[in-house]
C-alpha cells in the first residue's frame, strides 16, 4: 500500500528546479571579489569564460559560483578540523517567523558559499516543505529525525536521514509526524530517570556530532512548544537566534520565553547536559514601521535587549509573504511587484543575515581573526 501511495504522491517532474542566474556584478559580490578581478582571472584563463545570453550579456549559475570559489581558492567557511556552528532559530511561539527565517538564512548562506544542513524539528514541517520535500512522501519512517530521536528506536544512522535539496550546498533532515511520537517516547524516559533522561536530552546533539565537521552551519527550526524535543534543540545548539515581532503580545511572551530558556538551561545542567552558547541574538521579525505602536515597540526592544538585538529589523514584506506562500524564499523568486520593492526586501534580509554571519564566524578561530567582512564595514559606515 505504501508503495502505491508513493507512486501517486511522488512525481519527480514536480521537484523544484532553481532558476537562478547572476550578472557579473552580483556574482563578484557573492564570491567576495570585484567584477574587474573576475574579468581579469577569466582573461588570464584562471577561470572559465562565463556563459552568455544571445544578447551578449554574461551570466553565472550557482554551480559557476562554486567553481569560481574553488579555482580562486576562496573559502568562506570554517577550516576542515573546526565544528559547524549550530544555530537554533528559537522561540516557543508559532507564527513569529522561525521557518521563514530558517529558510531565507539557509539560502543566503548557500549563496555566499557556506555548506548548510537544515534540521526541521517542527512536526508541522513547513521548513521541510519549503525545501521541496513533501512530508507525506516520507513513508520510509525509518530514515527520519523522529525515528532517530526516539529512545525506542534502534536506528543509529543519523546521516541516513539527510536529504538533498534543489540547492547543491543545502541538505535537509525533514520533519515528519513521527516527531510527535518521539516527543512522547522521550518524555517517557522521565520515569526511568538518571542516565535515560540524560541520553534522551542529548539524542539530537549526539546525532549532530556525526556530521559536525561536514557542514559550516547547521540550522535548527524548533517545535513551537517546550518539551523534550525543544530541550534537545537547546542542548544541540551552539548559538541562538530569537525572532520577536514588534507586537505587544509577542513581546510579552518573549519575556516569558527568556525566563523559560533560563529554566530549561537549569534543567539541562541538572541532567549533566550543560550548554554554552557562543552567541544569543534577538531579531525583530516582520517589522512594519508604519503600523501604530510598532515603532514604540522597536524602541522598547532596543532598550531591553541592548547589544543582544540585531541592529536591523527584518521588515514585513509582501515579497516574503508571496514567496513563502509558494514555498520559496525571496532568493529563489522573481520580483512579485516592482524591482525596487524586491531589491529593498533582499537588501534588508542581506543586512540582517550579515550580522548573524559575523557572530557565526567568530566561533571559528580560523575566521574570527580575519575581522568583519567588507560588507559589514560598509553597512557599519552607512
Ligand atoms: N518579514 C515578513 N514579511 C511578511 N510576512 C512574513 C514575514 N515573516 C514571516 N511572514 C509570514 O508569517 C507567517 C508565519 O511565519 P512562519 O515563518 O511560518 O512562523 P513560525 O515558523 O514561527 O511559525 C507566514 O505566513 C509567513 O509568510
Ligand atoms: Mg514554523
Automatic annotation (TrEMBL):
Keyword Kinase part of the UniProt annotation: no
Domain AAA, first and last residues per copy: 86-263
Entry keyword Nucleus: no
SUPFAM superfamilies in the record: P-loop containing nucleoside triphosphate hydrolases
Keywords: Plasmid
Pfam family, one: AAA_31
Stated name of the protein: Replication protein A
The species this protein was found in: Croceicoccus marinus
Amino acid at each position: 500500500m505504501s508503495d502505491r501511495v508513493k507512486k501517486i504522491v511522488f512525481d519527480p517532474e514536480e521537484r523544484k528546479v532553481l532558476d537562478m542566474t547572476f550578472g557579473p556584478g552580483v556574482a563578484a559580490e557573492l564570491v567576495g571579489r570585484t567584477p574587474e578581478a573576475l574579468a581579469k582571472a577569466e582573461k588570464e584563463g584562471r577561470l572559465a569564460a562565463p556563459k552568455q545570453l544571445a544578447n551578449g550579456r554574461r551570466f553565472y549559475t550557482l554551480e559557476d559560483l562554486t567553481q569560481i570559489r574553488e579555482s580562486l581558492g576562496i573559502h568562506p567557511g570554517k577550516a576542515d578540523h573546526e565544528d559547524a556552528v549550530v544555530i537554533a532559530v528559537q522561540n516557543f511561539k508559532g507564527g513569529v517567523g522561525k521557518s521563514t527565517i530558517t529558510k531565507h538564512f539557509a539560502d543566503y548562506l548557500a549563496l555566499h558559499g557556506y555548506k548548510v544542513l537544515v534540521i526541521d524539528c517542527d512536526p508541522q514541517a513547513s521548513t521541510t516543505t519549503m525545501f521541496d520535500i513533501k512530508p507525506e512522501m516520507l513513508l520510509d519512517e525509518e530514515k527520519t529525525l523522529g525515528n532517530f530521536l526516539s529512545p525506542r528506536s534502534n536506528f543509529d544512522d543519523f546521516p541516513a536521514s539527510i536529504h538533498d535539496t534543489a540547492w547543491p550546498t543545502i541538505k535537509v533532515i525533514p520533519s515528519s509526524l513521527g516527531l510527535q511520537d518521539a516527543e512522547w517516547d522521550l518524555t517517557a524516559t522521565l520515569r526511568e530517570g538518571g542516565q535515560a533522561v540524560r541520553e534522551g536530552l542529548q539524542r539530537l546533539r549526539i546525532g549532530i556530532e556525526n556530521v559536525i565537521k561536514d557542514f559550516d552551519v547547521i540550522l535548527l527550526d524548533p517545535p513551537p512548544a517546550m518539551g523534550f524535543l525543544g530541550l534537545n534543540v537547546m542542548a544541540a545548539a551552539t548559538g541562538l537566534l530569537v525572532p520577536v515581532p514588534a507586537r505587544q503580545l509577542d513581546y510579552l511572551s518573549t519575556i516569558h520565553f527568556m525566563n523559560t530558556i533560563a529554566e530549561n538551561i537549569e534543567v539541562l545542567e541538572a541532567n549533566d547536559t550543560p550548554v554554552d552558547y557562543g552567541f544569543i541574538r534577538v531579531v525583530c521579525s516582520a517589522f512594519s514601521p508604519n503600523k501604530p505602536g510598532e515603532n514604540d515597540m522597536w524602541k522598547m526592544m532596543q532598550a531591553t535587549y541592548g547589544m543582544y538585538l540585531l541592529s536591523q529589523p527584518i521588515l514585513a514584506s509582501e515579497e516574503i509573504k508571496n514567496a513563502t506562500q509558494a514555498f520559496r524564499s525571496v532568493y529563489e523568486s522573481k520580483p512579485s511587484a516592482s524591482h525596487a520593492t524586491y531589491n529593498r526586501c533582499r537588501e534588508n534580509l542581506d543586512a540582517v543575515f550579515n550580522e548573524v554571519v559575523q557572530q557565526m564566524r567568530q566561533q571559528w578561530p580560523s575566521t574570527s581573526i580575519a575581522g568583519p567582512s567588507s560588507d559589514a564595514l560598509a553597512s557599519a559606515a552607512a
